[in-house]
User: Fold this.
Amino acid sequence: MERTLAGMVAVVTGAGGGIGAAVSQALADEGAVVAAVDRDEPALAALAERVGATPHPADVRDSSVVDDTVDRIESRLGPIGLLVNVAGVLHPGPATSISDADWQDTFAVNASGVFHMCRAVVRHMRARGAGTVVTVASNAAGVPRAGLAAYAASKAAAVAYTMCLGLEVARDGIRCNVVSPGSTDTAMLRQLWAGGAGPRDTIDGQPDQFRTGIPLGRIGSPADVADAVVFLASARARQITLQNLYVDGGAALRM
Ligand SMILES: NC(=O)c1ccc[n+]([C@@H]2O[C@H](COP(=O)([O-])OP(=O)(O)OC[C@H]3O[C@@H](n4cnc5c(N)ncnc54)[C@H](O)[C@@H]3O)[C@@H](O)[C@H]2O)c1
Assistant:
């Protein structure tokens, strides 16, 4: 069977984590040449070996490191056709007592990291008049969630940046879309369950938290998110840009 992304050079940030690893695997399965980026070097090395990607250790908070990394990927692997922004952090806490350090780190990774990666990659894409960007945000950017103010605000910033970028570069043949996962079984979600709530509470909802639960009745898997990314990256989505695809089992109750 023909592989939908054969030969495409794809950069995936956060590749060492749950969703980033699944995205890297799915892209490689579709024939992409995957450049895996993460600051967690052991996780990155393991992922790279598992899926046949090249590891590029980098911290997306640092724009000069990002610029150098992207230039190195272009010169070693060839023209980047796809950027998938997956790297992210979650520092939960009440809106009135988030520390300055947690707020700044959340924005440095989730918002500035997306900006740094897009700026570095899209200037190469623009010169060639082709390319695709997918930013993995969160359904928390579209629904208020108790205890997630910094995270939700940073993800809303990433969504807005990706959409504005997409508008500016649409005539250059570059499509920019967002995938917004809901609760997905990774280390990040299990960190939230450490407080006592578990999968059942997430699925059924928590009225005291104003959380409505997951209509489809299951926690998402990283592969669910990866499938949406592959679709948006592929030629099957050739007329789709500036869209935000929620992969959350209906949890955000959006029209
Ligand atoms: N798991 C969920 O329920 C869920 C829901 C909605 C959105 N998301 C989003 O999906 C993305 C992936 O999350 P995950 O669940 O796989 O989490 P994860 O913690 O398993 O993976 C996150 C990865 O990002 C990397 N990373 C963090 N900061 C970095 C930095 N400064 N530079 C480079 N790499 C960095 C980490 O090392 C890690 O490998 C995140 O952006 C997250 O916000 C996750």
